[in-house]
Fold these 3 entries.
Entry 1:
Amino acid sequence: MEILEIAREGNEGLATIKAAGVLRSGGVILYPTDTLYGLGADAFSDGAVDRVYEIKGRDAAKAMHAVFANMQMVEEYAEVNDLARKLAEKFLPGALTLVLKKKSGVEGGIARGMKTIGVRIPDNSFCIEVARTLGKPFTATSANIAGLSTRLKVDEILVQLDSNAHKIDLVVDSGELPLRSPSTVVDVSAGVLNILRVGAIPRAELEHAIS
């Protein structure tokens, strides 16, 4: 496991290149987002996504979302309807996860056995640059053991993951993150607003944005 501290000036570019390389080779990264630390892997690789499920001890039947660089990348994998566009224009990049119908032919990884995929475009330059450099999405799931709270410091996360921590190939350490709410998750795959989890963006703001 390699640890890179991006709080140091000039380190983010190196971390971006290394993270994209690890993801491209099927590895797993621990990385900061605009909400929490996450575990990243090639979002449409069965083997890579399975490693993330294993590290978290998460039920493989539960959906996992992914980081995209922009809406153009989203459109390569998902059907973006008018409601999704309206919410994206208002809240993305930001702490909103859009659940969209996957495009025909999109299979494997987070799309395996699913009709929809979860889309994140975080308000975080590192995440955006990694997705852009990689040229494809990578998983966006909190870096914690399933059922336990997510810690805000890398060393505490690694302690919680215990023996599973060694399965992470690269740690990108941005220092202690501020306490923030997780992303708000909305399913708009059917063209209507279905709020699955209220997080950083309140229900009232979502409803106002589409009224």
Entry 2:
Amino acid sequence: MAIFDRAALNPGVAPREVFAWAMYDFANSGFTTVVLTAVFNAYFVGVVAGNAPWATLAWTAALALSSLLVIVTVPGIGAYADAHARKKRLLLFSTIGCVLGTAALGLAQPGTVAWALVAIVVANYFFSIGDSLIAAFLPELARPHALGKVSGWGWSFGYFGGMLALGLSLAYVLSAKAAGRPAAEFVPVTMWITAGIYALAAVPVFALLRERAQPQLAVGGSTPQGVASGAGMASDVGSGQPGGVVQALTRLRRSWRDSARFADLRRLLWCGACYQAGIAVVIALAAVYAEQVMQFTQTQTMALIFVVNIASVIGAFSFGYAQDRLGHKRALAVTLLGWIAMVLVAGLGTTLALFWLAAVLAGLCMGSSQSCGRAMVGALTPASRLAEFFGLWTLAGRVAAIVGPLTYGLVTWLTVGNHRLAILVTGLFFVLGLLLLARIDIGRGQAAAQAAAA
């Protein structure tokens, strides 16, 4: 574990714990790479739904529904995790949910539209919950001056997991195609490969990572202001009852109201919602853009995703170190400028060389900007409310996951398939994020978080 610098870790944190924490990024990256970006989205549209006119809309609507469920529930889940010091237990539940949901996608066959849609809603929901909970461990592991570095370790390691899942899936797909098997036979196996890697790679998290948080319950069983009670949370999560939804929304409103005490954190949430909307477009629609505009084949598209992942590894790992030297705000500004450059190259470039350059820029910026944002949230959040406010960060990402791709889709629909204009419009999300970032004062935000913790 020599790769993990002990000087970057809090007292009592063993390097093996950071390795275990980073392994969760390794575990869940295959889901986004194989299920959302490279394989199952096209399989759903072309095979499960039979290229019906409503197929793409049904797919994006299912993803939007899962994001809405996250928006409603994640602040309450985060508050419950903080109040009872149960991030790790809830992370286990969310991991099982995503693994089972991904495996269920393997049962999708031509015509089983309802099954596939329910499975993707379940899998994507639990993926998002787990992503929020694992991020909340970061400030417990890393010293304040090294949040960017340690966050970069996780993000960069995670992309190797995505490439492993994609590589094994691609190898199986190529062999199945050579044997003359149809997609309905080989795509389900890629879902089981992805689910298996997720389950196995997540084991070190639950074996090695410690839950350092202490329950935040006050004397007499009451909870601090803004923290959910265990009984209330139990009735909220998964209840499906109108009262549970109302209570969850009330808790969401309370968490958002309380975040106003931390003005710079609030600004970061708005900033993150903007630039993550642009990132969501790249994740969900890069393959579509490559095929529709650049006339890529499926093999070329998968190679493109490999290139993006390799560049993301480099960006997340190297920029994590640079972030701690440059400062969180300046580092994020650099990545947003990189995203703007990527959009201009992709939208205005007409040669394959320029498009591959745009892909490399996207990879470098993706790993670094997501790692940087996570570290900034950790720096601006009070220690007693990590899971709750990281839940708000996840909420911002879920809103972005709805708004970004929907905007892209509307532009292409209104312009009769002008994908170049759609990607250029996407650049406005990064510009707006950069403008909002300019109003954030990191020193002031950290002082507010420390005062609240004290």
Entry 3:
Amino acid sequence: MSDSRRADHNGPLLLLRFLREALIVVVGAALIAFILKVLVAQAFFIPSASMTPQLLVSDRVLVSKISYRLHEPRRGDIVVFDCPGAECGEVEDEGDVGGVAGVVRSFGEGVGVIQPSTQEFIKRVVALPGETVESRDGQVYVNGKRLIEPYLPPSTVTANLAPTTVPEGELFVMGDNRGNSSDSRVFGPVRRASVVGRAVLKVWPPGRASFL
């Protein structure tokens, strides 16, 4: 067989081999992303202005899913949690998407390219189980002591809040943008079990990347 005929014969085989290897790489990457998303960490889009100025709309953060396997949530942590029932509204659940579309979505969500289909909130832990939180004269108090909040702009004013004791197994959360945040002042403390993880790193945009 001449070299030209051999090349013509091998062309489709080489293309098929390339496509097969590319498919293996894509599927493998999707599988790794899915495993990391479920067990270790997940990228999360910032959907609202409730955490400004530290986190802006469309910023992306990395959420650790193993932090709270090592220790309990701490005051000041920024946490991602499942949408409280009363705040979710009528949201179509796209979590059952299967086949290739499901793999693509899982990969996209895992690396932060696609916004997760289920509603999740991101807020800061202000009070822990058993503590009493209140706000007066623009300041937050926990167990009667003024809460020092260095992450807030100096001009921040928190609207008055009657004393509220956080039940066991729950957390009291607030957005840093106190004048524009739907948080525990609206829907009450959130269940510890609903916490997806702790936001540990702002990864996008690159110019503002930082630890949280």
